Backbone:
């Protein structure tokens, strides 16, 4: 076996596309987007056999530090068969050499590997479906585990909700796992004659997220951030942007026609309520407009919902729920192995911000509550590893002072 420290783009993508353990975060495209947005240098390394065939690979995101050092991060771990201990051992050995060669302080790895089965309270289920042996194996190779965090303290969420389609014969069986209130909301959305389509840009997504940010008082990512990520995946067919449009005036006319023929008072009052709401949403400059946008990314086997933007009309009409439903249905019809809602917490009763609300929402979509194995560090320079947080904090303060003086 041979270590390669500069895998060619086409070769990296080809192996990533075929491997069962590929993840959207260890894709070539994620490295490209991070270079553009976060000033992280992507490095693509791996191992080959004697004939030059790639056996494993990984994306390393490089961050430079003062004193001509650096550190790396391998998002969602390596594209590798983690059960092949010989290969994992050999690759780890070569990575340690690479850290030494490039004067790196450490390498952070957070494999997309399930740690153990858990119940809806995030408590372990006692069975044989776990990766305790792999966890201990990595420790024996010198990986330092960073703890079993419950919230969003690390680089990536350690919990998620994921629907594995192999467990269902039809999509109707998948629907049965979705909460009844959620399904009612989805069915209700059809009353509003939404136009669901796919867009090749993130213009509407950014506009909707910006509106929410202004309302809730937070700073959104730049438009270029969303563009760089979406375009990097979209170019190769690994991104979709689901958008929903509504035409309030058209729906009002339809509802008024229904009311003229309806005899049930409760239904009449319901339609009247909808009409009053929709009248406030009519725009002078356009009849039909976007009210929700959901960006999703893919591998050959998996699908992840990533960013969502919506307005008040989308919330009222159940449109956001509808887009998640369309995402899951498409993933099933495209014969993906799973649909992942990308991130939740491991403490369902957390009082921190609205994290428990995110948990409850994603839980309603059914799927398995998943706990990942967590972050590991391979440490090359123990002293600098220990003081790195303090050093970086000091360095950033100095940069701010210099910038203020320059202004």
Residues:
């Amino acid at each position: 076996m041979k270590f390669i420290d500069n895998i060619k783009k086409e070769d990296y993508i080809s192996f990533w596309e075929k491997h069962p353990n590929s993840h959207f975060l260890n894709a070539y495209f994620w490295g490209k987007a991070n270079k553009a947005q976060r000033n992280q240098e992507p490095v693509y390394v791996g191992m080959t056999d004697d004939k030059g065939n790639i056996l494993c690979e990984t994306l390393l995101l490089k961050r430079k530090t003062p004193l001509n050092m650096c550190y790396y991060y391998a998002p969602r771990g390596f594209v590798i068969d983690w059960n092949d201990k010989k290969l994992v051992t050999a690759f780890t050995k070569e990575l340690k050499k690479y850290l030494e060669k490039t004067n790196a302080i450490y390498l952070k790895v957070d494999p997309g590997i399930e740690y153990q089965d858990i119940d809806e309270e995030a408590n372990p289920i006692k069975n044989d479906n776990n990766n305790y042996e792999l966890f201990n194996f990595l420790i024996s190779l010198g990986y330092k585990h960073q703890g079993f965090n419950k919230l969003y303290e690390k680089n990536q969420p350690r919990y998620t909700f994921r629907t594995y389609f192999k467990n269902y014969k039809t999509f109707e069986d998948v629907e049965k796992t979705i909460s009844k209130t959620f399904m009612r909301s989805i069915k209700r959305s059809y009353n509003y004659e939404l136009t669901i389509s796919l867009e090749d840009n993130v213009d509407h997504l950014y506009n909707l997220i910006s509106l929410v940010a202004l309302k809730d008082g937070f700073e959104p990512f730049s438009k270029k951030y969303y563009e760089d990520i979406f375009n990097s995946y979209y170019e190769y067919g690994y991104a979709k942007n689901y958008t929903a449009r509504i035409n309030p005036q058209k729906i009002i006319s339809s509802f008024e026609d229904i009311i003229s023929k309806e005899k049930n008072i409760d239904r009449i009052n319901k339609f009247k309520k909808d009409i009053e709401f929709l009248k406030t949403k009519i725009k002078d400059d356009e009849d039909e407009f976007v009210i929700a946008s959901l960006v999703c990314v893919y591998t050959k086997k998996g699908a992840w919902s990533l960013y969502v933007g919506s307005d008040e009309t989308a919330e009222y009409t159940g449109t956001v729920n509808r887009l998640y439903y369309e995402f899951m249905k498409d993933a099933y019809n495209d014969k993906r192995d799973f649909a992942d809602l990308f991130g939740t917490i491991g403490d369902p009763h957390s009082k921190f911000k609205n994290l428990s609300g995110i948990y409850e929402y994603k839980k309603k979509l059914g799927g398995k509550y998943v706990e990942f194995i967590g972050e590991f560090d391979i440490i090359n320079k123990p002293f600098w590893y220990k003081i790195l947080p303090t050093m970086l904090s000091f360095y950033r303060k100095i940069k701010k002072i210099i910038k203020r003086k320059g202004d």
The mean pLDDT is 95. The chain is about 40% helix and 20% strand. The longest strand covers residues 54-65.
